[in-house]
Specification:
14% strand; globular; Dna Ligase, domain 1; 44% helix; six-stranded antiparallel β-sheet
Length: 884
Amino acid sequence: MPFSAIAPDDLARVGGKGQNLGALTRAGFPVPPGFCVTTAAYRHFVAGCPTFSAWLDKLDALDPDDVAGARELGAAVRDALLAVPPPPGLIAEVTAAHHELGREHAYAVRSSATAEDLPGASFAGQQDTYLNIRGDDELLAAVRRCFASLFTDRAILYRARNGFGHRHVALAVVVQRMVVPEASGILFTADPVTGHRGTLTIDAGYGLGEALVSGLVTADLYRVDRRTGALKELRVGDKQVAIRPVPGGGTVTEDVPEDRRRARVLDDAAVAALADLGARVEAHYGGVPQDLEWCLAGQQLWLVQARPITSLYPLPAPGPDDGSVHLYLSFGHAQNMIDPITPMGRDLWRAVFPFGKTRLEEIPRGTTTMVDAGSRLYLDITPVLRLAPTRRLMFRILRAVYPDVAARLATLVDRPAIQAAAKPRPAALRLALGMMWSVPFELAWLLLGARLDTQTAWADRMVAERVAEFRAAVESQHSGVARLRAARHQLTGVFQVMPKIAPRLVSGMLSLGRLRRRFADTPHAADVEALQRGLVGNVTTEMDLRVGDLADLARPYPELRAALEHVRPGELQSLRELPGGPAFVDALAAFLARFGMRGQAEIDIGRPRWADDPGLLLTSIRGMAAHGDAPGQHRRHFANLQAEAEAAASRLVAAAPALARWIVRRQVQCVRHCLGVREHPKFLFIQCFELVRSNVLAAADALVHAGRLDARGDVWFLTYDELLELAADPGAFDPRPRILARRADYDHSRHLSPPLVVTSEGEVPARPVPKDLPEGAIAGLGASAGVVEGIAHVVLDPAAQVLRAGEILVAPYTDPGWTPLFVHAAGLVCDVGGMMTHGSVIAREYGIPAVVGVGDGTKRLKSGQRLRVDGSRGIVEVLAEAAP
């Protein structure tokens, strides 16, 4: 098929590269002419290989992480295909197309897979390209080699890791007239490093682009401000070689003359022409940022490829409407959960924010506090940073609890485009002030006169009363639709408790900060950190200890432990028939009555709870019970931590000057008795969430019965208003198309890495790197002091993996669903987190060193490596690689 004949729906025939070249040709862009050898030809070719189906069976069984296996299988498949002669019909058609386009020209022969250059996966560089091909025989040989390159080891692994089946991918071949350029390179219509949509970047080198993409030269870098056309940055590279075609076919690598190596490849006019070309191509693709390959021959620019930039994180939506740049903070990072959130989960959180209201109608018109990006939620913090008093307060809090966020925001906040953002609307200010006016009085009372040893009992009572009020308000309604409406109405005001809880957390944090400053550079600095061990009243710690109790009950009974691996949710009572079973089942029932609404990624209402599927919990219990700990060892360990903390408290008071002892004693008590209630607001919310959840599932069951939903889990891919509409009238609309599309978006979003901070232009500020970072080390936030060495265990799913005693837990994040793993952890490394996020608090309470917020630790570190975790300096070092 010639490029001009390729239609928009021809992806399955010509692959991603071929389809894009066809679209660019039809749109009138300067594309060198060419044709595609279609996937029908590929299938006709591989059908001539009698062992091909057997090889595909072996590839389908390959582990996505088996690099050696992919290399061996790939080589075998390629050898088998290259032994197959091309079918006569293919020889005739390719030869005819070649002659029609011009035998006197040289051609680039390029692979174009059906899963390639797509919006969700680029597959760039996975298959082969051959340059400066001349003559019929060489052209046919290059086509055949391209067909075989669908099975390079890199292509096999890429498909396996991205969920593309080997049987469902086919390959077309692009045959394109060669341009002999003076210069060539890559153009990104958005900055591929920072994500900034307003910055266009160009890499340029001499000759063919192979020298650049192969890493043989350091290309020139041109950064252009798309709004003004100004050159923001020019970095001239050292271009020592260039690859050029030779007359007889093939290419040669030549040395670049000394005087041209450090000279600019592109002048201002060429940069401007490329920027204009990039903007026009992006506009043609509906504003989707593009990755272009270009060549410059004389004064003529040629476009030889365009594909979507798949590495960019989606922009927050809806974007700002005031013409300025806004700053967004990841809600998932703040909650230590970076998985995507179901559509209904996101919808309900938008009903909760902003805090301070009692009904949805109180949200000021035009206020967008939470926005979507990549199936996650982001908080618009621009209005807070726009006012000097709230800006100072926010930076003080962030530097104390999330210094990484503070450091990143500091690089952005003073920009004129951000400061131009509209100030908070008066209605929004009244909402915030109306909620928080009592906080200073409560804080002063806690710091100076309140009885502190009753704070846990007060918090427990407050949570129980609010949950009871919530339940009564929902259950008083007589219809399912009315209950759904009442549940959301109650949820919007659930955080009216924050003015009561916030002073307790702040008093503990302020007291801790004061003590750190007072005892800095003294022998008692470590005693200050020890105060956070075994905190009083943390409901998550209570939950963890009770999981340990369940493990104690199962440990003496091998048959019971084995049964925990396979028991299904509806079969728990069958455990009573086993030795030790009755006591275990009763204790588990009591545990689920108290904590059954919790689970992994629990801030998403669409994720299973332990009460839904205790198997998520039983895996952890079984892993803990497999170790030979003495009964009650976990409680004795916690009691020892509490004793150490109390002893440290006594030493701090004794070390203070006589006139300061009262205030030091008061500060010590604030730390011990107030910081522990940090988990109560979330515990309250998760219990209220469960009341909403039960009503949503009841409505889902009715819709399944009515034939409007295929399964009850589909309900999480509706918005709450859509559910209300269907609950009132099941025939109102067919929800299936929406559910299908949203589920596809959600599944795609699982592979995205959400940024901690992002602007409305897509810019992700770089994380500052410590100056004293040892070579090869990973930097993060030291969240729990101390140094430990041990074997790394990378855990991505706490329901499927257990930790052995003394291992270092390396995790993407932790929330209460991960807490049982902490019993055996000697240290913690987390991709995300701050000083007050879940993993940090639990690590301090357990007295284990922790470094959080390392960014990509689960990718850079491997299970079995020996690590040194320095929780004081925030550094993780690899001491030894994993044993074979």
